Amino acid sequence: MGNSEQLEAVDLSVFGKGDDRLREGFLPRWTNYHFERTDYYNGIFAVLAMVAIGLLYGVFAVVADGRLRMPVTLAGIFLLAAVFIIAALVEKRQKKAGTMLLEDRTVSRDLFGRASSVTYAEWSTAVSEGGFRITEEGYLIRRGKDRLLFGYEAGDSKMQGHVLDLYAKFREKVPGLPEMTAEGIGSLDRRFTYEKNSWGGVVGAAVCSLFSLAGKLFGYPQNIFVYAVCAAVQLHALYRMFANAVMMEKVTEKVNGELKLEGERSLSGRSGYIRFYAASAVILVLNLLIIVLSF
Known about the structure:
Number of helices: 8
Number of domains: 3
Largest sheet: 4 strands, antiparallel
Strand order of the largest sheet: 1-2-3-4
């Protein structure tokens, strides 16, 4: 049976008219984590945009005798407001997008309201062909353009229970998938937290090195205090990165055991060490350049 024939047999009203993401049989296309991350970046964008508008106001207060400062400032504010209105409308549509798990197949609706249908047999084939991955947001299953994301929803017990129930029903119809439990999700959340935490300090350490290197290249005055602070920041960042790599390896072993992940599906606990060695090498090269330029 073709995709169009399947859709003709499906009552698309099962999606409903509301945006209740907890309704029976409905798997959201985007997780709560996605919306939290979007709100975070929107906040950063808003702050940077307001700073830019303030700078434009100051610039046009000096040039053109200040005649254009109010029109330019108001245009910037209206443009910023328009961006956030569009973002809010997009988010509203995203919350309506998702997949209904029916008896013999899934029916998905994307951001633009387009629908697609996939049988559980077709999902089984996709899983057997390597279409399953464990990501930062959840268990991802792909079949061409179709995708199902069973999110962890670690901060929302109701949504997490809803997703776990759906995954259990889906797993009954699609064999070969690993387990998904609240305990395993907790361990996965800690693993990805250690993975993310390892980058913040290293960025600061690299900035310190680049700051010192720029000072040498452009002749800015620096003293031993600046170098001491940079060295302390770098050592602390590398120490934290190594500590996160150790914890990440331990938690990864626990995750593989709890979720019974074996072979190609097992998660690697060594990637933290690889990033640590790579970051150490980069910082070492930058520091050697600073030393060479000092003589």
